[in-house]
Design brief:
Layout: H1 9-23, H2 28-41, H3 44-55, H4 59-88
Helix pairs in contact: 1-2, 1-4, 2-3
């Protein structure tokens, strides 16, 4: 525990884990409330009340709550490590399935100087109208 009247952030986090584990116990309601209060306020006096409530439980129930809290803490530690690794890892680029191709323009035929007439245009008709020879 931290010196003085306030608990450290680690202690408060630990109390929250213990409170969640105590909620599932049959007599853990009172303990859970006291642990949550101690975690919220960070007060040494609230911590001591929660500690005395925990110590008043029978040994098997204390052991069950402690085991659940240790498993929960280990899981949270592992999740924190995984989050840090993911944040530090470079983001892979999306795979397209093929290598990028080089772009080259399609050669266009140059207009000849001999012919000054534009190329013939195809006759366009409106949709739904039959083609006639007058267009």
């Amino acid at each position: 525990m931290a010196d003085g009247d306030q608990l450290s952030d680690i202690d408060r986090r630990s109390l929250r884990i213990l409170a969640r584990s105590a909620k599932s116990a049959t007599t853990g309601d009172r303990l859970s409330m006291r642990l949550e209060r101690a975690a919220d306020t960070g007060s040494r006096a609230d911590y001591e009340k929660a500690e005395s409530t925990f110590d008043s439980l029978d040994p098997t129930e204390r052991q069950q709550i402690s085991s659940k809290a240790e498993k929960h803490a280990a899981t949270e530690r592992q999740l924190a490590v995984t989050r840090r690794r993911r944040a530090a890892a470079p983001t892979p680029s999306p795979k397209t399935g093929a290598e990028p191709m080089e772009w080259t323009p399609i050669p266009q035929p140059e207009p000849s100087a001999e012919s000054s007439e534009p190329p013939p245009r195809a006759a366009a008709s409106k949709p739904g109208q039959p083609k006639t020879g007058r267009e």
